[in-house]
Write a structure and sequence with these properties.
Helix content is 74%, strand content 0%. The protein is elongated and about 60 Å long. By secondary structure, the protein is mainly α.
């Protein structure tokens, strides 16, 4: 907690509340990302092929 030693009580409370809010936002983002399915391998191959074709042009 060394870098927070200069904060007074009210500033510390505000900082903790901001961190708690950020923590909840990140938990929601993790939950959302866990629900996303990885793309099918075929679509990755076609994307790779499209990229190769674009680079040739």
């Amino acid at each position: 907690m060394g870098k927070w030693d200069h904060l007074d009580r009210d500033q510390m409370i505000a900082k903790v509340e901001a961190l708690l809010s950020e923590n909840e936002r990140l938990k929601a983002e993790i939950a959302r990302l866990r629900g996303v399915k990885p793309p099918a391998s075929g679509s990755m191959e076609s994307m790779s092929t499209k990229l190769k074709e674009a680079l040739r042009e």
